[in-house]
Amino acid sequence: MDIFHDNPLLAGVRQMVHAFAQSQIRSIADKHDREESMPWELMKQAKALGMTQTAALEGRKGLTGVDEDPDPKKPKSQARIMVAASEEMAWGCAGISLALGGSGLACSPVARMGSEEQMQEFRKLLKGDDEHGRVKIAAMALSEPATGSDISGLATRAHKDGNHWVIRGSKQWITNGQSASAYVVWAQTEPAAGRAGVRGFIVARGTPGLVPGKKETKLGIRASETAQVHFEDVRVHEDMMLGIAGEGAHGLADTKKMLDSTRPAVGAQATGIARAAFEHLLDRVRGASLHGTPMASHQHVMFELAEMEMEIAASRLLSHRAAWMADHHQDNVAVASMAKAHGARTAQWVTTRAMVLLGEEALVPGHPVEKWYRDAKIYDIFEGTGQIQRRIIAKQQTGQNPT
Q1: How many Å apart are CA 374 and CA 126, to the nearest integer?
Q2: What is the model's pLDDT at position 249?
Q3: Are 84 and 13 in contact (CB under 8 A)?
Q4: What is the pTM (predicted TM-score) of this model?
Q5: Is 383 a catalytic residue?
Q6: 3-state DSSP helix/strand/coil % of the chain, to nearest 5
Q7: 139 has which bridge partners?
Q8: What angle, rounded to 10 degrees, do the helices at 333-358 and 252-287 form?
Q9: Are 384 and 149 a contacting pair, CB within 8 Å?
Q10: How far is CA 385 from CA 149, 150, 336, in A?
Q11: What is the pLDDT of residues 376-390, one digit of tens each?
Q12: How far apart are alpha carbons 302 and 281 in whole angstroms?
């Protein structure tokens, strides 16, 4: 069943983003992967078209050109739109997809938790071009060298000093960490309060003590910048702390909800990688021979292709189910984790089997399947590892608190 056939809005978004990915992303994917460089020109073009995750925060209509009904009880379409777009973008190139959408990681908590004044300040920080003439981007500084998936164990601290907070600590594996014009930094404000003490702060580039660190060299998603960020007694006015002081629900708990809301799109990105590898393999199999006979006539090859398409379809449906639940204000914690974990597993399995079936040719750097194989691995690690997702699912099944 075509999940888009009865939804013209989703079908239109998918068609538009696929055309963009095919004509604009695919042609530069190999270059930016080899150079490990951000696609700055394409990012400017995508922002002008409303094809970035900052559109809503900027007061724009984004991909659809349609305003959502402001009634919080009414079903929305934003999560499903993001899932449909994410698969097509990652089909083009996962690294470039993350470069285009990475600022959304920081925009999301500001949109969810920020006051109108904070959102205005954040918009101002992202307005126009930076000092290099590039589109301004944002970074969410959450992960740390020693915390991994345990975001409740942050070592970065913030202490109050008059009407300012002073932040000290280091962050690692931060998307857009080196080039961001605005940061959303998470720090522990009350160690004795545990998770309830974790707070987010808006910090502008150039604030004294904010030091962008080393840019990481990565296995995959190389077109997306990942870097360290250091905070050496960074002073931030109290007005730039997200949420309401003293209310833990606006701290780590809301951060976890934010991550739950992004996981269906991350699962869709992984699905896009798997689909790209599958389509390339299928095209090769149709015209190739093995031991003197058509490759497609060999049963083990046919079975592998059938398994691939089944897993890709299952991953897509899980992501869309989790997104539909989010759009209809239903608890989607477990299904979002299923979508993310299943999509990651599918991407790794499909790209691995495609490498095997294509043989030596796929081992050459620059071969598209070799790139997709490298890109796929991160999807089992970031936004919560596969083990973390299974823990969340199991806790939901047994009635335990999934946090």
Answers
A1: 31
A2: 44
A3: yes
A4: 0.91
A5: yes
A6: 55, 15, 30
A7: 183
A8: 30
A9: yes
A10: 7, 10, 13
A11: 999 999 988 999 999
A12: 11
